[in-house]
Design a protein that fits this description.
It is a multi-pass membrane protein. InterPro entries: DUF3817_TM. Keywords: Cell membrane, Membrane, Transmembrane, Transmembrane helix. It is found in: Cell membrane. There is one protein chain. By secondary structure, the protein is mostly helical. It has one domain. Helix 1 packs antiparallel against helix 2, helix 1 runs antiparallel to helix 4 and helix 5 packs across helix 6. The chain is globular, with a radius of gyration of 18 Å.
Length: 166
């Protein structure tokens, strides 16, 4: 049993899976545009700083989109194929919005968080992590931002992906 009081009957999350995924899919598209404009600035006009700005913003949003994809995949019990396609959509320029619209049309973003307060009991490890995140959103947001910032910093330190294996 949990020491946590049950949520009020009218409890609603600030952001549903649909809203979260729609916003991050759009943010990915916007940051792809910034990255591509930065590449044009760098390779077309010799402005090296342009990719560090667009690339940095895109990298951060990319990592947030990956986290959101994993969360929605877990909560909505997507098939492995759908989840992997969601992750791959972040790597292909402008593919996140068509993917998001596809899963929305198929009803895979419907309803509230399954594992949120008052929802189902978590099953496996991924369910337990997501359930904790939905029931303690401030802590989860801080932890997620810290982890994303650490990964982002490590990737920035590693340099552009084109130079990782050269």
């Amino acid at each position: 049993m949990s020491d946590e009081p049950p949520p009020p009957d009218d409890w609603r999350p600030a952001v549903t899976p649909r809203v979260l995924y729609k916003r991050l899919a759009l943010a990915e598209v916007v940051t792809w545009t910034l990255l591509i404009l930065g590449m044009i600035g760098k390779y077309g006009f010799g402005q090296d700083w342009a990719t560090s700005v667009g690339g940095g913003i895109h990298g951060f949003v990319f990592l947030c989109y990956v986290v959101a994809t994993l969360a929605v995949w877990t909560d909505k019990r997507w098939s492995a194929g759908t989840g992997i396609l969601g992750l791959v959509s972040a790597v292909i320029p402008y593919a996140t919005v068509p993917f998001e619209r596809s899963v929305e049309r198929r009803g895979l973003l419907e309803g509230p968080w399954r594992l949120g307060p008052g929802g189902e009991r978590p099953g496996g490890p991924a369910d337990r992590v997501l359930s904790f995140a939905l029931r303690s959103p401030v802590v989860a947001l801080l932890v997620t931002l810290i982890v994303v910032a650490i990964v982002f910093s490590l990737l920035v330190t590693a340099g552009p992906p084109t130079e990782w294996f050269s």
